[in-house]
Design a protein that fits this description.
With 484 residues, the protein is mainly alpha-helical. The protein has helices at 18-38, 46-55, 59-62, 75-87, 91-116, 119-130, 133-140, 145-165, 168-182, 188-202, 207-235, 250-261, 271-290, 294-314, 322-325, 329-341, 346-367, 376-385, 396-413, 416-419, 433-444, and strands spanning 390-393, 447-450. The chain has a two-stranded antiparallel sheet with strand order 1-2. Helix 5 (91-116) crosses helix 7 (133-140) and helix 5 (91-116) crosses helix 16 (329-341). The radius of gyration is 24 Å and the shape is globular.
């Protein structure tokens, strides 16, 4: 006699994904990894260069009070240090680490989707994350954002498993993944707080399960205690490396939340975007209040609570940015996928899924050509080959970038085919003095001056930089931003 397995807290039978779902997932991961690797060959920006500088430090220094100067925990820098020892420091090589982590995150989205729904929900969640412009951006950044997103997805999977089966395996997965997230980005502490309180509420009828949950969180808090104390000390410091973040208004918070949650990855949220976001939050609130299954309530509370809590904290300590909220985008996409696959009408469900995937693809296609990039290879080559020598007046970010790319740029400048590419849209390539000034100024946001006192194209001589920042051109496409 055939027996259907029914999950503990809901009436939906657990449907086996079968080999077909796994085959589709593997093909999806291979395609996404190939696309992201193939499009990773552009210069690092300031925060990524800062990651390399931290990765060059001794591991003992990264895990000491020396890290008071940096608001990001040391786990990703430690991983990057080992990765560099294996593959070197080429731009594409160092980006392979976050690309691999981001690809694993797609697999984790599939796993969470299967845990709360079935293979269809998992595949749709994985496809939405694969086509996400935000996910692609995070996977290209040599920063810890992709790792934080992966950790939160795994931690959510652990909580869902514990809600269903009450076995220690779910608690172990949650505890390990949450510690990884906490030592990757400090804002994951918001996730741990929201998850801790919500799970206590969901487990209120099972005292023994509550006690185990509390013990797990005490262990997590103890393990995070060292970095938690450093974070508290950083909050009392008069100046930190996040002082540039502005206190967000509610309009700013809505726009940044829409950029993380909506499939079109909008840079500006109009009336339509605000209505879509309001509709999404209304649906999530209904799930949080009325859903029969506790795991759905859990993900809904996390998705709603993260931007609200981040906004509230940012009124005291501004930390609200799309990338500091990005860790919750995974559970949000899983909830959306679950909602689509639970539509009773199969044609409507398929059409809704196709629309979401289409919007995500449009968002990726519209973002990709104009994505934020810096062209330090080209700048360093033109500066190094120019005679008479140049002095670049900029800040520490410009000096850090030129120190890395000047020798590589000089080598590229010797390649004729490289010079055949247009430098600007106003005419053919010509290594003229005025054009170099315009290019350097447009990329660095700083001034370029002629001077005989600079060492020209000699890559062994260290170039000095005078701090004079151009405030009018401070964006990631023109000049590096501060670390977060």
């Amino acid at each position: 006699m055939a027996v259907k397995r029914v999950d503990q807290h809901g009436g939906y039978p657990a449907q086996p994904g079968g080999r077909r779902g796994l085959v589709v997932l593997v093909l999806m991961l291979v395609a996404v990894a190939g696309f992201r690797i193939g499009t990773a060959g552009y210069s690092l920006w300031y925060d990524e260069l800062a990651s390399l500088e931290f990765a060059r430090q001794p591991v003992s220094r990264l895990w000491s009070s020396w890290m008071l100067r940096e608001t990001n925990p040391p786990l990703f820098y430690t991983m990057l240090s080992g990765w560099i020892a294996l593959v070197g420091q080429d731009d594409v090589a160092v980006r392979l680490l976050p690309i691999g982590i981001g690809t694993a995150g797609i697999g984790a989205a599939y796993g969470l989707g299967r845990a709360v729904g079935d293979a269809k929900a998992g595949l749709l969640a994985a496809a939405l994350l694969s086509l996400s412009a935000l996910g692609t951006d995070l996977s290209h950044q040599v920063r810890g954002y992709a790792l934080a997103q992966l950790a939160v997805l795994l931690a959510c999977t652990g909580m869902v498993l514990y809600l269903r089966r009450r076995t220690p395996g779910g608690l172990v997965l949650y505890g390990i993944a949450t510690l990884i997230g906490l030592y990757t980005h400090t804002t994951v502490a918001l996730f741990a707080g929201l998850a801790g309180v919500t799970m206590l509420w969901l487990l209120r009828s099972d005292r023994r399960a509550q006690a185990r949950w509390l013990a797990t969180n005490v262990a997590v808090l103890t393990g995070w205690g060292w970095w938690g104390m450093i974070s508290v000390r950083q909050m009392t410091m008069p100046v930190t490396n996040i002082a540039w973040i502005a206190t967000p208004s509610w309009r700013d918070a809505v726009a940044m939340t829409a950029q993380v949650y909506l499939p079109l990855f909008p840079h500006e949220t109009g009336v339509a975007g605000m209505l879509l976001l309001a509709g999404l939050f209304a649906g999530l609130a209904a799930c949080a209040v009325r859903a029969a299954r506790p795991e759905v309530r859990l993900l809904a509370v996390l998705t709603i609570g993260a931007p609200l809590l981040l906004f509230a904290i940012s009124q005291r300590v501004p930390i609200f940015l799309p990338r500091t909220l990005s860790w919750v985008s995974g559970p949000e996409l899983v909830l959306v996928a679950l909602g689509v696959t639970r539509i009773r009408s199969a044609p409507v469900a398929r059409a809704s899924g196709a629309i979401l995937l289409g919007l995500s693809a449009i968002g990726l296609a519209s973002w990709f050509p104009s994505r934020e990039r810096e062209h330090w290879h080209q700048v360093a080559a033109l500066i190094g080959s120019h005679q008479p020598a140049l002095i670049i007046v900029g800040d520490d970010a410009v000096a850090l970038a030129l120190d890395r790319y000047r020798s590589r740029g000089i080598q590229r400048a010797q390649d004729r085919s490289w010079f055949s590419r247009p430098i600007a849209s106003d005419g053919p390539t010509a290594c003229t003095q005025d054009r170099i000034y315009r290019l350097v100024s447009s990329v660095t946001g700083c001034a370029a001056h002629r001077a005989r006192s600079w060492s020209g194209g000699d890559p062994s001589a260290r170039r000095s930089s005078t701090i004079r920042r151009s405030r009018s051109n401070r964006s990631r496409t023109t000049a590096p931003r501060r670390s977060r």
